[in-house]
Amino acid sequence: MELLSYTFFQYALLGCLLASVVCGVVGTYVVTKRMLFISGGITHSSLGGVGLGLYLGLPPILGASVFAVLSALGIEWLGRRRDVREDSAIALVWTFGMSVGVMFSYLTPGYVPDLTVYLFGNILTIQEGDLAFLAALAVAVVAAYAVCRRLVLLVAFDEGYARSLKLPVTVFNYAAVVAISLAVVSCIRIAGIVLTLSMLTVPTMTASLFTRDYTHTIVLSVITGFAACLGGLVLAYWWNIPSGTAIIFVSIIIYLVSRLAVRWRGGRQ
Fold it and tell me: What CATH number is given for 2-195 in this structure?
């Protein structure tokens, strides 16, 4: 309980809650639409923005945001061309972003912050600006889902049918990859570039074990994600390990235990 008296830990808890909301809404769409590989490409390409930010003297998270959004739009555009396979486009953007990030981090004059902070995260370094970004993004994704719920469900489950209804599917797809890229960047402080994909997917996978309703999946994903963050922070404090890895570890343990519980319950019935 002593931890609650520290400002940095209060920021960490609030950041966990806001990130869980963002990942619950965006992650449910990612898992339902089977966009995991695309999300992975966007996640790892954001390292290019971190490197450019360091080189240009800009906040690395700002650079990661711009680079991630441009990468997401590039993947979506290339994937719609007939002469380029979508997986090839993802691999192209993925490797280009990582190479740019490492290259410019080495070219940055003077002291260069340790890249492991961005690769594996450290939620205890979260600041007021990060919280403001998370809060704005959380409000935006929740409001967007509330307003466009029918379109989200149609595109997520049957994009072809949505197009037959003359709905703005192409515009929505571009907006969706932008939302995914911003969700990715919002989690860099918490889980890092390497582990962020787990925050988008594992809580939703856990929620899907208990419900098939889309909205209920979002709500349960938020609860599961926040519980994993709390458990990870406590584990990181006890064992003195990086908070990002601890959060993902606890998240996966929750999934495995939930899966065993569901299977045991099914066997009992």
Answer: 1.10.3470.10
